[in-house]
Amino acid sequence: MTSLSQKATTLLELHKPGTPVILPTVWDAWSANLAASAGFSGLTIGSHPISDSIGKSDNEGLTFDEVLTRVKQITAAVDLPISVDIEAGYGEDPKRLIEGLIDAGAVGLNIEDTVHSEGGRLREAQEHADFVGALRAASDATDVHVVINARTDLFVKEIGDEADRVDRAIARLKLAAEAGADVLYPVGFHSDDVQKRLTSELPLPVNAIGHPANSDKSAFAALGVARVSFGPIWQAVLAERSNELLARWS
């Protein structure tokens, strides 16, 4: 088995603008094994899919301990680099977040700027960067370089005027980059022009969300994307297909 430190290095090295790594978003050992068997080189664990899988709500309806329980099940099932969506951090101290993830066998994380425990407010740009910096410092205190994917919800929550939203997202994510992020995630489905601006103006590899049935890897590559994950969409597509099958019997 590869050491966690080596897995973290491998995960980071997979992020190549123009040659995006595809990291399917899984939620349990079954889905992780399915993706691993298909030949993917790493996986993400999504908060929304995990929540649905155990009957909890997304937006921190789970506790961090519940997330770690599922992470441990997945890392025990597959020997791949794993990144975990930890939403806004579940109100936990950055040190506990990093130590908990490493102990569970994960080597990466998504951290978003929506604070669900405080009415869904958006962290201020520097506030979010400071949280990223605290996560980086906590990781640096270990022998595992946890790959930090700093996410902003400006697009999905349609915060502020659309006319300058891209500018504000770029400014916000640049602060996160300066604070120690490794990857930047302006989550949302963007036009080609917007996606190209994001990949060309941001200083780090950019994560895009893809639809496993409708999106195209080559299109993301042409736009300079370095990483594609599916969020809750793979699980949703499987649910749609399952409904079609089960409807024949109901």
UniProtKB/TrEMBL annotation:
Short name of one Pfam family: PEP_mutase
InterPro entries: ICL/PEPM (IPR039556), Pyrv/PenolPyrv_kinase-like_dom (IPR015813), Pyrv_kinase-like_dom_sf (IPR040442)
CDD domains membership: ICL_PEPM (cd00377)
The protein's name: Carboxyvinyl-carboxyphosphonate phosphorylmutase
